[in-house]
């Protein structure tokens, strides 16, 4: 769920275009009635509703009703609720009594809601580390899959961008600069399973987090052991942000595509990058990610590369087709 | 269940209401001295709720952590730097060498909220405190910590409320077991804020008296603050690096209660499952556990559910049990790590922390640890300790620490 049509792969062939003006663009919501009864929906903030909708969708697609693990990623948590509580503290002082807003402001409220709805007692954890929150959740899922501790995992990234928070983050340069893609919200989910899996869309070969690495180190990892055919990177139009991707591109000599021109920028955006790469590998069609003029080779594997200013994350995906 | 490589603790550090290092914390535990008192450091109008504050101003913390007055920091990051520094020094990693893959995982939920709530109005109106916008979130606060320890291979942040630090330990252990890291520095930090003090007040689970875990008259929790970290690695790695082993991290488990966002189920299902998973992970039987450091927040709900879960799992071989939250307060995201360090100190020091303020225990067959005749923590030769951390949202985590016999 993003600024492209929700729960749809229509962006592969006919994406919604947005100008690179550093503005703020709200995600497009589906009709939540398909997922939630009115009473339930009334008690949930927007981000929680989106989380339920994408999670239910992917679990149905993967034919999994009770995942062994639920891993959630969110850079800021439910900002709407945090703001409501903070504003009330500022306006009313310490007489404030807003139990629901407080309860729904903690970062793990999303992951626990997903478990409560499905009575899922399995492993449950939440990662909140800016633009690599999603890859942290993937890392946890992958390590447990490799150890045989779980045989499948629901992994999702959920972030919202309120107008107030957009204003704050524009002051830090993370969003809102001229020439940048728009800031957005997103809710992305996927099911990871131990091999072999019947309905697999592609293979998740490896995931790596690196803290303050030199571009050369990232390039070596991308090209090493299991090399890839192309890079999908978190390019967003900001010179400062895009610099490391250019360095990695030079060092690897691999074609580089972007995804934020489609899905926008927020702390959960990298999950949209992985989602997009999965769908492209499965369909064999990369045209919507390919922003440049260079002809693409045949792409059977990609490295999805993102950074959050200090950490660099790489998710290596391979085609099963 | 999965059996894992032998994983050991080679360093530990802690800052909390009963001490600014392990030695001070051990001393307070041995003499049954609580750190709960009237609020002094947090700027709040709610003086009626006792809290467990770290006895340092931010200025004093900066001095202790070696962080200059002008550098961006928040109270959570300051405490964490002190605690992580103590742990890394003990593990011989004050300077992280090349070729050793050391990762940092921190559990936190408030992050830089102490600064954000102070400067919120100015965030909107000016650029004066923009640096604190950038360090508001959990991950950015963790990076303030990480940047004090050059050479880290990877850094990430867990946020599962009161089980955050325990889950950080678990991720670290799994990464080491899978060969994806050599050494992990794992723990948590949380400072007091008006935000969550008033949040817990809204939920009506704060006590106006010092808390009484497992007592039938218990009426709620006292909030606390602090930070703690463990350094963990394989036994083989510790031998290779030539560092002494503190104890084993022999097992870990995580399960979800899947019942309610803030209340726990009557049969303590999540707690039961996480303790059971930890035992299986350690290859131990319930009868092997000598002492349980309970989550024991002192709310009517938690202590009852936890006692029910303990009774279900340990029927016929109930270990001694105590909650140390009557010493430190409920340190929320940091509690899993602070209480892990307390378990280490108990193992090393041959004592069990007493359950304070207990006059009449709830009726679930539990065996609370009481002070000895001299009013001190009773001596005990402990082999295996179970440490529980149960978070809002039903995020239940349990760790098992064991004596290291060479």
List strands and helices in order, with pairings.
The complex is a heterodimer of chains A (about 325) and B (about 400).
Chain A: E1 24-25, H1 38-42, H2 46-61, E2 69-73, H3 79-92, H4 99-103, H5 109-118, E3 123-127, H6 133-147, E4 152-159, H7 163-172, E5 183-184, E6 186-193, E7 203-211, H8 215-223, E8 230-233, H9 239-252, E9 256-258, H10 260-263, H11 269-283, E10 301-307, E11 311-318
Helix pairs in contact in A: 2-5, 8-9
Chain B: E1 7-15, H1 22-30, H2 58-65, H3 75-90, E2 102-107, H4 113-125, H5 130-134, H6 138-146, E3 154-158, H7 164-177, E4 183-190, H8 194-202, E5 226-234, H9 235-241, E6 247-256, H10 269-282, E7 291-293, H11 300-314, E8 320-322, H12 325-328, H13 335-349, E9 367-368, E10 384-391, E11 395-402
Parallel strand pairs in B: 2-3, 2-4, 7-8, 7-10, 8-9
Antiparallel strand pairs in B: 1-5, 1-6, 4-5, 6-11, 10-11
Helix pairs in contact in B: 1-13, 2-3, 3-6, 7-13, 10-11
Global shape of chain A: globular
Main sheet: strands, sense, barrel of chain B = 11 strands, mixed
Count of structural domains of chain A: 2
Poorly predicted spans of chain B: none
Index terms:
heterodimer, A: 321 residues, alpha/beta, Peroxisomal Thiolase, Chain A, domain 1, 2 domains, 5-stranded mixed sheet, 4-stranded mixed sheet, 11 helices, 36% helix, 19% strand, B: 406 residues, 11-stranded mixed sheet, 11 strands
Explain what you see.
The complex is a heterodimer of chains A (321) and B (406). Chain A has helices spanning 38-42, 46-61, 79-92, 99-103, 109-118, 133-147, 163-172, 215-223, 239-252, 260-263, 269-283, and strands at residues 24-25, 69-73, 123-127, 152-159, 183-184, 186-193, 203-211, 230-233, 256-258, 301-307, 311-318. Chain A has 321 residues and is α/β, with parallel strands linked by helices. Chain A starts with 23 loop residues before the first strand and ends with a strand. The model of chain A has no long low-confidence stretch (mean pLDDT 94). With 406 residues, chain B is α/β, with parallel strands linked by helices. Chain B has a single domain (7-402), classed as Thiolase/Chalcone synthase (Peroxisomal Thiolase, Chain A, domain 1). In chain B, 34% of the residues lie in helices and 17% in strands. Chain B has helices at 22-30, 58-65, 75-90, 113-125, 130-134, 138-146, 164-177, 194-202, 235-241, 269-282, 300-314, 325-328, 335-349, and strands at residues 7-15, 102-107, 154-158, 183-190, 226-234, 247-256, 291-293, 320-322, 367-368, 384-391, 395-402. The radius of gyration of chain B is 20 Å and the shape is globular. The chains are: A alpha/beta (321), B alpha/beta (406). At the A-B interface, α3, α4, α5, β3 and α6 of A face α4, α5, α6, β3 and α7 of B.
